[in-house]
Amino acid sequence: MNYKRMLQLVAKEYHTTPDEAEAEIKEAIKAAGLDMSPQLFISLCVAKGRKDYIS
């Protein structure tokens, strides 16, 4: 699933727009004390999940 599609699904689930969903994701990443793009954060989470699932 690509980033744009993921934003569309999140926006639909929470009755908002993809732009607002992306802004919330960026804010949450910043609040967690991280300085990275949402795409990088999601990629790291997916990689960690795959590693844990395969192990």
Structural notes for this entry:
By secondary structure, the chain is mainly α. The protein is 76% helix and 0% strand. The chain has three helices and no strands. It has helices at residues 3-13, 18-31, 38-54. α1 crosses α2. The longest helix is centred in the last third of the chain and has 17 residues, at 38-54. The radius of gyration is 12 Å and the shape is globular. The model has no long low-confidence stretch (mean pLDDT 90).
Helical stretch tally: 3
Structural class designation:
mainly alpha
* Uncertain segments: none
| SSE ordering | HHH
What Rg is obtained from the alpha carbons, in whole angstroms? 12 Å
The helix content, as a percent range, equals over 70%
Number of strands: 0
N- and C-termini, Cα separation: 23 Å
Largest sheet: none
Q: So what's the overall shape?
A: globular
Mean pLDDT: 90
Quote the beta fraction. Answer: under 5%
Write a short abstract of this structure:
It is built from 3 helices and no strands. It is mainly alpha-helical and 55 residues long.
Output the keywords:
55 residues, mainly alpha, 3 helices, 0% strand, globular
Layout of secondary structure:
Layout: H1 3-13, H2 18-31, H3 38-54
Helix pairs in contact: 1-2
